[in-house]
Write a structure and sequence with these properties.
Elements: H1 4-19, H2 28-40, E1 44-48, E2 54-57, H3 59-66, H4 75-84, H5 96-103, E3 112-118, E4 124-131, E5 137-143, H6 145-166, H7 176-193, E6 197-204, H8 207-214, H9 216-233, E7 239-244, E8 247-253, H10 257-270, E9 275-276, E10 283-284, E11 288-294, H11 301-317, E12 323-326, E13 332-335
Parallel strand pairs: 11-12
Antiparallel strand pairs: 1-2, 1-5, 3-4, 4-5, 6-8, 6-11, 7-8, 9-10, 12-13
Helix pairs in contact: 1-2, 8-9, 9-10
């Protein structure tokens, strides 16, 4: 980069050349005022020549990339200096040489381009990058950190709102709408891959009697306890959601009927530990009934749920606290832990 005296004279000459396209009568005071405005601007302004030597940089650019650097002032050397001293743009893989190798061929690939970039210090800049006919490059960067922070806040607010719209407030499980969306996705995956998929409708036994005898706080404690047991025992790719009231839908991808029945029994064992309500309400024990079905190739949400519901009603009819399996036909198969999961009912 040129000396300070040469720098000022050169910058005035450059500005004069640039402005001569638009203004026929330019005096030194106009040029000096423009140069002072660029130097003091909060925007980051730089000019590199055709050989990528820095020819002009204002104060903001100095602070972003140079600091006390005394050269050489090529684009590559400035980038290396900035990376070594915690300045400049953030390089995701921390490989400055790979970053330079990627960037150099693109610097003059278009006459003009705009892009956003984030700095090591956390700020964000929107950069307008202009290649002049002689191969020189003018870059002007505007600080958009506040806008990015607002964007992040809006995105986070959207994510919170989306999560709230999908979540049952009491149990913190997927609500009815979302668990049915997940079932629809699971059925589509099952059809595309041919993998096994099981679903189960689960209903807390005699839940109305719990509410009537002990109050709604006790009933809420039972539902929360059941949700917690499920979260503790299910795999990451399994899903359970609250369909409404005391009824839940369980989705078990890549799971056979036998394995699905075992998963339900693991949940049942966890529910043997009584749920304790808040505010001094009594400790309660509870059971649940489950209707289990394996998805068929041509199933949709309605047909799959119909078989699981039919099996659930059979489990209720036959005494509760058990799992029944619904097949394509009306036949039902009962899972009982004490007989190894076999037997007709």
């Amino acid at each position: 980069m040129v000396s300070l005296g040469e720098y000022s004279g050169f910058s005035l000459h450059l500005l004069q050349c640039l402005m001569s396209y638009f203004i026929s009568d330019i005096n030194d005071e106009t040029l000096r005022s423009l140069l002072e405005a660029l130097t003091e601007s909060g925007q980051a302004v730089s000019i590199f020549d055709a050989d990528d030597n820095l020819r002009y940089a204002n104060k903001t650019y100095h602070g972003m990339f140079l600091g006390d650097y005394d050269g050489p002032f090529t684009f590559s050397d400035i980038t290396r200096h900035a990376h070594k001293n915690g300045l400049g743009v953030r390089i995701d893989d921390n490989d400055v040489e790979a970053f330079i190798a990627r960037t150099l061929p693109r610097r003059r690939s278009f006459p003009r381009k705009s892009f956003e970039t984030d700095l090591v210090d956390g700020r964000w800049f929107w950069v307008d990058h202009t290649v002049l006919p002689n191969g020189w490059v003018l870059s002007v960067g505007a600080d958009i950190t506040a806008l990015k922070q607002n964007e992040k806040s809006l995105r986070q607010a959207h994510e919170v709102a989306l999560q709230a719209s999908r979540t049952d407030l009491l149990t913190d499980l997927p609500n009815r709408r979302y668990i049915l969306e997940l079932l629809d996705e699971a059925l589509a995956t099952n059809k595309a891959t041919g993998s096994s998929l099981c679903i189960a409708m689960i209903d807390i036994d005699k839940f109305k009697a719990i509410n009537d005898a002990h109050g709604h706080e006790a009933g809420d404690a039972v539902l929360q306890h059941f949700a917690r047991v499920c979260r503790e025992r299910l795999r990451k790719h399994d899903h359970i959601g609250r369909m409404g009231g005391e009824e839940f839908l369980l989705i078990l991808p890549n799971t056979s009927l036998i394995d699905a029945a075992r998963v339900i029994e693991q949940i049942r064992q966890g529910c043997c530990v009584a749920a304790k309500a808040q505010n001094g309400a009594p400790t309660l024990s509870y059971t649940f009934s489950a209707g289990l079905a394996e998805a068929l190739f041509d199933d949709d949400v309605t047909s799959a749920l119909r078989r699981a519901d039919r099996a659930l009603y059979a489990a209720k009819r036959d005494g509760r606290d058990r799992t029944k399996v619904g097949f394509e036909t009306e036949a039902l198969w009962a899972w009982k832990p004490n007989n190894g999961g076999t037997g007709e009912n």
